[in-house]
């Protein structure tokens, strides 16, 4: 239907008068003016276009009306109708028929009303039209077509079906040569990968398989919903570049991600976000959400089984490639007596071989290929090394098929295309080999690091076990000496008693001699006691479970109604429900603040279970702006119940500054300064209700009016970080879009009602013999007449050169 860009011949000089010819011409009277009636082989020529018909009436030198088998042709565009009215002043032809047919190469339009401008080569259709182009189909209520660049503009109720996608929308600009499309308001796209895309403005580039959205973008996949003001979606890679007001809803992992710039990968579901990024972890069963923000954030979906399978496949491909290369080297070695000459890939064999092989050699010399054969000795080594050389294909095809092949032709562009394809294949295979080698190296490094880490962990566990055994033996020996000195009987097994047991509630927890074997001395904070399984004990099925990994960098902020935190970088792992905070982290829970070098937070069912603080941990509770209760040690572990700290264990060089208060009064009555090996304190309703000290506690209690000046009221590394404590608006200030999955999943795909109506109408017309589906062209006598008027056809394609087909890649054409 639509003319190609360029290559249409030189522009024809514009004539004011419409040239005409016919078998019979005679004057007639028409509305007080003279007109000319033309009958038999009528033809008009104007603006480089020709109009043929059975009969016509010429009202003036620029206005005529055509009847019967009307054909309008300019360049490759053919318009078929029953009647046409042509105005040479405006260069516009109105074509009338039950169905108007327009053809341009492999594109065909059927419509009810059609207008064609022979000067600008622009057509317009109305009342519905259907365009078919190769395997593609378009329809709309009305539209325009531009023959010079083969572009169709479809307007109102547009529907498209192509090899790659289905589309509905209000308006689309479609190029029939490149299949490039521009779409506008209310566009819905379904691609062959099962994804749905919505846009109010954008384009599709078939060459790069790229969907571009510049307004109100939305992508729906099986597991995610993605919103963004602007989207570049690479369909084959499942990769999207997002810009402006981004929201990603991962319903599988219950995660919302936000940002103003980011990238998204459909498989396995990774995302990178920056420019005010935020992540919301929601669980509808808990009724509370966790908000995280940072300067940049990464979301990964880790599938261990898939990673191992990909690694194995890459290694297998690399091994196969090596084996294939070795086989190809052998197959390329010339056999004894083999007289096939080496040729360059960029110089395809152009001689057709007939008769015996010796005759073929003679033909090669006569056709000038002896110069090419003379290069063979210089290229022998490279041919043996390069198993992918195009020459091997030439040699095989000549040995097998050259005796049966006739001379064929190949254009210069086809030769260039073959060379480009060969170079692309070689580049792709080299890249695949390098990727496989790199992946194998990464796997080796990862395995070595994992083994090293596990060895260190095992050594540390063995060391801790030995140390605990020695401490237990010393405690038992000390207790035995004390019992012997006081003449006490052998006690019940103290390892099964708890320091909080009702039998010992009356004891003085501050007395050094009141230390008993406590259940806390055992590993009361082990994962087993919390109903959790450590990562190292996961079975193979658990290790293969797909999990979510979130990383945040710079200015990390976390908010939930019951706790808040800040740090420089963060790693959250869904497999073991842990959040790891690094570089100057701070955690707030109610009126308590905890700082350390590293924090590990363990959760279950969206609830904090425990938190471990390593490296200068310090817990601070504010009484007023001058008095702070403080606890520090080498390591600290806080246990949570209902997302509130109820127990805190401090191990190693435990230090306490505690301001004592009356039970029913906020007034401070004294200061407790204490040091011990370990301690545990319990909190109820934001108040410390019990403290247990272990390993030689040393303490001093001062009345508030008797505190010596040299007593430090603040522990080392004390810093009250109230100004850094984030509110929800500091972490998340965006509007959450509600899910529209249900509405978009039920969106109607293209039904092509106009095409169905036109097809049915066309069948009825053909059956009643009122219309025929024409494909006739301009007759030779009309073409000769056009030549005499100065018309010249489009430029001819360059001459083709004869060539032997290469392994079926080249199509046979006539010389």
UniProtKB/TrEMBL annotation:
Stretches for region Disordered: 337-380, 480-501, 795-815
Domain Organic solvent tolerance-like N-terminal: 15-170
Record-linked Gene3D superfamilies: Lipopolysaccharide (LPS) transport protein A like domain (2.60.450.10)
Biased composition annotated in UniProt, kind: Basic and acidic residues: 360-380
Pfam families (alphabetical): OstA_2 (PF13100)
Keyword set, alphabetical order: Coiled coil
Coiled coil feature spans: 409-479
Keyword flag Coiled coil: yes
Protein name as it appears in the record: Organic solvent tolerance-like N-terminal domain-containing protein
Organism, as annotated: Alistipes communis
């Amino acid at each position: 239907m639509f003319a190609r860009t360029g290559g249409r011949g030189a522009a024809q000089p514009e004539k004011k008068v419409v040239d005409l010819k016919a078998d019979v011409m005679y004057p007639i009277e028409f509305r007080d003016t003279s007109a000319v009636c033309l009958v038999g082989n009528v033809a008009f020529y104007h603006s480089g276009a020709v109009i043929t018909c059975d009969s016509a009436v010429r009202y003036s030198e620029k206005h005529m009306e055509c009847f019967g088998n009307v054909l309008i042709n300019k360049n490759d565009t053919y318009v078929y109708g029953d009647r046409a009215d042509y105005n040479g002043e405006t260069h516009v032809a109105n074509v009338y028929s039950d169905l108007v047919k327009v053809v341009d190469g492999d594109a065909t339009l059927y419509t009810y009303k059609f207008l064609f401008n022979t000067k600008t080569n622009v057509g317009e259709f109305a009342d519905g039209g259907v365009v078919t182009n190769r395997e593609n189909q378009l329809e709309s209520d009305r539209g325009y077509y531009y023959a010079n660049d083969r572009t169709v503009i479809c307007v109102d109720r547009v529907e498209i079906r192509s090899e790659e996608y289905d589309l509905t929308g209000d308006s689309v600009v479609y190029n029939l040569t490149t299949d490039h499309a521009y779409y506008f308001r209310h566009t819905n796209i379904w691609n062959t990968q099962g994804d749905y895309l919505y846009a109010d403005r954008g384009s599709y580039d078939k060459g790069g398989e790229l969907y571009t959205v510049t307004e109100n973008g939305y992508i729906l996949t099986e597991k995610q919903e993605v919103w963004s003001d602007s989207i570049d979606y690479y369909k084959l890679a499942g990769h999207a570049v997002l810009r402006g007001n981004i929201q990603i809803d991962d319903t599988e992992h219950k995660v919302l991600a936000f940002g103003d710039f980011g990238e998204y990968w459909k498989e396995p579901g990774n995302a990178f976000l920056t420019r005010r990024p935020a992540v919301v972890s929601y669980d509808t069963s808990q009724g509370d959400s966790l908000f995280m923000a940072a300067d940049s954030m990464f979301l990964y979906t880790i599938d261990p089984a898939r990673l191992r399978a990909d690694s194995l496949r890459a290694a297998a491909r690399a091994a196969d490639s090596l084996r294939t290369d070795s086989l190809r080297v052998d197959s390329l070695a010339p056999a004894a007596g083999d007289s096939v000459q080496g040729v360059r890939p960029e110089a395809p064999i152009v001689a057709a071989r007939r008769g015996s092989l010796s005759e073929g050699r003679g033909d090669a010399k006569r056709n000038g290929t002896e110069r090419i054969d003379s290069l063979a000795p210089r290229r022998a080594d490279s041919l043996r090394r390069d198993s992918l050389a195009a020459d091997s294909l030439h040699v095989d095809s000549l040995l097998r098929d050259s005796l049966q092949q006739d001379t064929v032709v190949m254009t210069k562009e086809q030769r260039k295309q073959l060379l480009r394809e060969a170079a692309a294949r070689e580049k792709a295979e080299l890249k695949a080999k390098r990727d496989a080698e790199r992946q194998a190296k990464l796997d080796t490094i990862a395995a070595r690091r994992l083994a090293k880490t596990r060895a260190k962990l095992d050594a540390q566990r063995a060391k801790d076990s030995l140390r605990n055994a020695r401490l237990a033996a010393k405690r038992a020996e000390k207790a035995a000496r004390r019992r012997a000195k006081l003449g006490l009987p052998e006690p019940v097994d103290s390892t099964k008693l708890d320091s909080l047991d009702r039998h010992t509630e009356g004891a003085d927890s501050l007395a050094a001699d009141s230390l008993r074997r406590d259940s806390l001395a055992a590993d009361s904070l082990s994962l087993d006691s919390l109903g959790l399984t450590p990562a190292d004990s996961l079975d193979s099925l658990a290790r293969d479970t797909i999990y979510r990994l979130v990383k945040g960098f710079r200015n990390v902020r976390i908010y939930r109604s019951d706790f808040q935190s800040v740090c420089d970088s963060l790693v959250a792992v869904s497999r073991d429900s842990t959040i790891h905070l690094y570089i100057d982290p701070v955690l707030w829970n109610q009126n308590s603040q905890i700082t350390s070098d590293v924090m590990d937070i363990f959760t279950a069912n969206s609830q904090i279970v425990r938190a471990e603080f390593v490296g200068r941990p310090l817990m601070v509770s504010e009484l007023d702006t001058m008095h702070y209760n403080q606890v520090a040690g080498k390591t600290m572990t806080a246990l949570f119940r209902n997302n509130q700290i109820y127990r805190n264990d401090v191990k190693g060089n435990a230090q306490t500054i505690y301001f004592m208060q009356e039970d029913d009064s906020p007034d401070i009555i004294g200061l407790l300064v204490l040091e011990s090996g370990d301690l545990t304190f319990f909190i109820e309703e934001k108040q410390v209700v019990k403290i247990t000290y272990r390993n030689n506690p040393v303490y001093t209690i001062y009345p508030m009016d008797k505190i010596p000046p040299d007593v430090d009221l603040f522990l080392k590394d004390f810093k009250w970080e109230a100004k850094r404590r984030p509110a929800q608006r500091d972490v998340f200030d965006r509007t959450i879009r509600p899910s529209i999955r249900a509405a978009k999943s039920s969106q109607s795909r293209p039904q092509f009602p106009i095409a169905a109506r036109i097809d049915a109408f066309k069948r009825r017309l053909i059956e009643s013999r009122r219309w025929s589906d024409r494909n006739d062209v301009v007759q030779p006598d009309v073409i000769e007449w056009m030549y005499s008027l100065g018309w010249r056809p489009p430029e001819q394609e360059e001459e083709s050169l004869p060539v032997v087909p290469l392994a079926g890649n080249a199509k046979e054409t006539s010389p």
